[in-house]
Amino acid sequence: MVIHGDASEIMRLETSKEYEKVFQQWLKKIAEVLGYLYYHTRDSRGSDKGFPDTVMVGHGRVIFAELKSLRRGRSKPTADQWKWINALDDSGIVEVYVWYPDQKEEIVELLHDGLFEERE
Questions:
Q1: Alpha carbon separation from 39 to 24, 36, 42, 49, 68 (Å, rounded)
Q2: What is the pLDDT of residue 80?
Q3: Gap between the Cα atoms of 66 and 49, Å rounded
Q4: SS3 19
Q5: Is 99 helix (H, G, I), strand (E, B) or coil?
Q6: Closest to 63 (Cα-Cα) out of 34, 42, 20, 101
Q7: Domain boundaries, given as residue ranges, for the chain
Q8: Quick check: 90 pLDDT over 80?
Q9: Which CATH class is domain 7-112?
């Protein structure tokens, strides 16, 4: 996989196998370098429970991602998070993922996929 511009440098950033916040910061940098708009609610208090951590829009795609940590093994989405993940997936019009810090390479490949091809 060829990564253009600053993305190759960002791939080398330490994402920490433990902390979701650092993972979130890493994903934001990668998404922006690859030309996506990136949204993350910093303080979800008062928001409906379970909505995914991140929304990325660009290159004809809408991507929702729930980010999980590896602090005590692989943390799993809550029941409320699964409701949103399943509803978004069932819509058939957006992409939705659950991502962990040890999936950096796959995430970059997925975001990078199709950037330099004609999207139908």
A1: 10, 10, 9, 17, 17
A2: 96
A3: 12
A4: coil
A5: strand
A6: 34
A7: 7-112
A8: yes
A9: alpha beta
C-alpha span between 34 and 59 (Å, rounded): 9
Q: What is the Cα–Cα distance from 120 to 58, expressed in whole angstroms?
A: 14
Global pTM value: 0.80
- What token pair was written down for 12? 């080398």
Count CA within 13 A, CB hemisphere, residue 44.
10
Size of the chain, expressed as the number of residues it contains: 120
Neighbours of 38 (CB within 10 A): 18
For 63, phi then psi, to 5°, come to -125, 125
Give tens-digit pLDDT for 22-69: 889 999 999 999 999 999 988 778 788 999 999 999 999 999 999 998
CA 107 to chain centroid, in Å, comes to 7
